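Sample pair:
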Amino acid sequence: MSNRIGLSLLDRRYLDAIQGLISDGIYPSDLPSLETALRAFLTANELGVLRMTDAWDHEHSLNWQTTRDNSLYLPFDDHLLDYEFVSPDDPINTQTLPEDEVGYLHQHISERVTASAKELLKSGIKTEAGALSLLDDWYAGEFHELHDYDAHPNDIWDDPERKKLYDGNHNHAVFHKGPWFQAEYAVRCYRSGISLYSSMPVIEYCKEHIFWKWPDKIFEQFDQEYLDLVRELRGPGNSAFAIPPVTLMVLDRARSRDDIPRAIVELRDEYAIDRKNLWEHLVAMWSAQSIREKKKLKDDLERASKHLFQASFPSMGGAFEFAIDTAENIIFGGLSGLKHVGKNLEPRISVGGVSLVGRLAKDFSKHLVDDRDVLSRHLTMTERKAFGIE
């Protein structure tokens, strides 16, 4: 397998969300991107900046550095978080795809991108200029409100240039080869064990074509159970928005807003061994010779992920109460009592099978606190109002 397995490349939207948390301003709409980026800091062996930015990028701009772009070398320009990112000068070698697969991929991406773009162009944008701007932003993952693209509302829809655009005869890259190069690059990265974090639709379409969902799947069930719990516990003074778990954990660990970069780096350092173990587990699962062995390793991951929430927030009391409960079940319950004890212990045992999940359970238990004090400590008055906290 590739020597870059476990490398995660993040596009600017995700990195900007972290920058917003540190200094520029953070708002509820930023939370999904922020949480995804912070999770990458915990789970990725290496971090890098994704060079893919819009539909006009071509293969040469993705594979090597043609000009020195400081946003690739110093994504935060802070001399702390920047050290966590690989140099863009380092070559990222990816596997070549078979010609038959490339042909299928080009057709698949072309059909999906063209269909989605045409659907957007039905949305009521009245000018060619507005439609072009809309396509640019949509493809870059920076979609805004539709009225932002309607510069001249008195223009009519049926002008020849706009019709040419809808028919795909315009020279906008979404209707031509730009997405092909990016899709092929994305799949080559995934085949080499490299994760791409991007809001660009072409990346989402590629995920349908390819395969692995780990390590992101670790959080899948936890997210829903945690969201349900937060909604049930929400009371007067709480944020109107659920603060995602890793984001809340970082905020709780940081003493002040200026301290957030240090908290992120320290958290990444603490997970280093567990992260290494996780990727060794994934490589073993992918490279195992028998389906039986692959399934066993997959079951270990799924069992740990399934019990992450219960292990983070166990329903039983303290150690003394647990000891009394255990003794009573063994003495008075016999075999059924032992089964009950085993059921109570199952979440702890299951998450311990994957050390990174076990560490997450301990950290979530400790650092997922009421959001009022944490947000008040870090956010400005304007930001607190946006989150519904006065």
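The beta strands are 7-10, 46-49, 195-197.
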